[in-house]
Amino acid sequence: MTWFLASLETAFKVAVKRKGASKPPSRLERRLRIQVNGPTAGRRTLALKSTMESVAEVEAAAEKLAADAGLDEDGQFHLAMAAREAAVNAVLHGNEYDPAKHVTASFENTGEALVIRIADQGKGLNPETLPDPLAPENLMRGTGRGIFLIRSFVDELHFRQLNPGTELTLIKHLASAAGKT
Prior knowledge:
Distance between the termini: 44 Å
Radius of gyration: 16 Å
CATH architecture: 2-Layer Sandwich
Shape: globular
CATH class: Alpha Beta
Order of helices and strands: HHEHHEEHEEH
CATH topology: Heat Shock Protein 90
């Protein structure tokens, strides 16, 4: 249930933000404006600590990338949630909150797709060993749905084993690129 409550909290924050609450930009918002704004194409990279605050930074950067690319509100929310889930997995399961380990997140608009890479420095992950969250014995578990959610929110999800760690690449194709032949 923790993942659900975190997702619900995020959805609430996004909804409040979209209602037009006018307040000065936070330190995080100013940092993201500097790091993610810029030309349509190009990669921006964040090196982050293994904390839940870092998860919020990844989520906000993904939402900004999606907004700058012209995705609608649902598309922005989906990409932000996928990036959030990947960052939670990196911090919690990959790095196990180890302060000596970092999470690297990169954000890129290639003109054809939005590409987010999130890497941890943990033991590594074999995606084939993940339990099916829809199996009857897993339905009531409070965890284990992150990768399932990521797959439902993006067009492609790739795993790469690092030494040490795992890198997830999330790809969301842009509609304008999909219409080209």
